[in-house]
Amino acid sequence: MVREYLYAYAAVATALGQMVSLILPEASTAMMNRFLEEVSRVFSTHFIVMQVDGAGWHRANDLVVPENIRLIPQPAYNPELNPVEHIWDELRVKYFHNRCFPSLECVTEALCQGLTALAENSERLRSLTNFPHLNVRR
């Protein structure tokens, strides 16, 4: 058996029902830097507070956080508090449940279909991720 991997990175603007995602070859600081650049570019007119878990690449010394992004750690052992975790649940249930894929390319295709479908459905995206405690008034 051969195991191959790819990694989906995603950030969601919960109140807007908008999402940015990238499929990258590894989970690393270099890839997180690339992802943060993309999020910063897509949401360039916004100030972004991004909740991240304790993964090493989320807190590495060589992590480059763009000026319009602030990373905040989520409480340990509480992934359900991070809205993006509900994206992964949705993808697992609707695109990967009880399926065997003949190749990594087929996995990539299913992942792209799922991410695209969610990105195009802002109402569904909001229903999965827009929790009342995230709506902070200025």
Description:
- The chain is of the alpha+beta class.
- It is built from four helices and four strands, in the order E-E-H-E-E-H-H-H.
- The chain has a two-stranded antiparallel ribbon with strand order 1-2.
- Strand 1 and strand 2 (18-24) form a beta hairpin.
- Helix 2 crosses helix 3.
- The longest helix has 16 residues, at 104-119.
- The model has no long low-confidence stretch (mean pLDDT 91).
Task: Quickly describe the structure.
With 138 residues, this protein is of the alpha+beta class. It has helices at 29-42, 83-96, 104-119, 122-129, and strands spanning 7-13, 18-24, 48-52, 69-73.
Tally of helical runs: 4
Number of strands: 4
Tell me the helix content: 25-40%
Main β-sheet description: 2 strands, antiparallel
- Report the span from N to C terminus: 54 Å
Mean pLDDT, rounded to whole units?
91
- Strand neighbour order, sheet with most strands: 1-2
Anisotropy-based shape:
globular
Percent strand equals 15-25%
Structural class: alpha+beta
- Computed over alpha carbons, the radius of gyration is 15 Å
Spell out the helices and strands N to C.
EEHEEHHH
Q: Indicate the low-confidence ranges by residue numbers.
A: none
Q: Which key phrases capture this entry?
A:
alpha+beta, 4 strands
Set out the fold topology.
Layout: E1 7-13, E2 18-24, H1 29-42, E3 48-52, E4 69-73, H2 83-96, H3 104-119, H4 122-129
Parallel strand pairs: 3-4
Antiparallel strand pairs: 1-2
